[in-house]
Amino acid sequence: MGDFQYDNGEGTFSVSYRKARSHNMPVSHFHSTYEIFCLMSGKREFFIKDRTLVIHEGDIVIIPPNILHRTTNTETPEHERLIVNIHEKHMAAGSYMDVLHPLFEKEYLIVKCTLQDRLAMETMLQTMITEMSEKKPGFELYALTLALQMLMICCRHVKSSRVETFESPSPMHERISEVVRYMNSHYMNELSLHLLAEKFYVSPYYLSRFFKEATGFTFVEYLNSVRIKEAKKLLEQSSMKVNLIAKRVGFGSVTHFGRVFKSVTGYVPLHYRKGK
């Protein structure tokens, strides 16, 4: 089965399948949909919000809208994965809301299914891959219903299981998590690699090198992504002028803000104001 990428053109439903020897997400990553990341084989490091976690074959990661995340290689980079992005409006039917409640109260879910659920999931994943590849009449609706079933199984599992704790891969990763949490809280202030290196008592070289290793982002990529994520939220949810938003999220120049915004999202800032 070959790799494929499908998008419905409305930004509300997409499916991506990939079997690769190695892959690192090339750009900053956050979006307006829920993401279901299904690792069908292999092992990956996953940076989500402020933590780096290791996920294994059969694990499913569910990430809500506008949560920064990135997946990177482990010591065994070969892997197979299927990613579904689905907008909340597809989950808005009243009959779904109770069972899907864990999605709306947690920052992210990492689901390690029972053997029975994993077999059911594997069948649904293979069916979805076939549907998206063959594109028979109604394939998108078929795939969408499979995605909802997957979400229900995951949420049932979360409700019936104790919450698993995930340790950082190393003390270095935990140290970088402290830096990331500080950046998430102080993104609107003047921040630099040297300033944070001094604050956390490490060398700028150490911080630069291990920040990239732990998160998959360079320091500047991550800082820009956090700022643009917050700017996007303000554009969608307020009537604040663009130049004031740029200043609010930490940019000294509205021109620089516009350039960075487009490089991160693919759109100019007013695209999201018009969308509102």
Task: Give structural notes.
This protein is α+β, with helices and mostly antiparallel strands. Helix content is 47%, strand content 20%. The protein contains 11 helices and 9 strands. The strands form 2 sheets. Strands 1-2-8-3-6-9 form a 6-stranded antiparallel beta sheet, covered by helices on one side. Strands 5-4-7 form a 3-stranded antiparallel beta sheet, covered by helices on one side. Helix 5 crosses helix 7 (204-215). The longest helix is centred in the middle third of the chain and has 22 residues, at 139-160.
Walk me through the topology.
Layout: E1 4-7, E2 13-20, E3 34-41, E4 43-48, E5 51-56, E6 59-63, E7 69-73, E8 79-86, H1 94-97, H2 101-105, E9 109-112, H3 115-134, H4 139-160, H5 171-186, H6 193-199, H7 204-215, H8 219-237, H9 242-248, H10 254-265, H11 270-275
Helix pairs in contact: 3-4, 5-7, 6-7
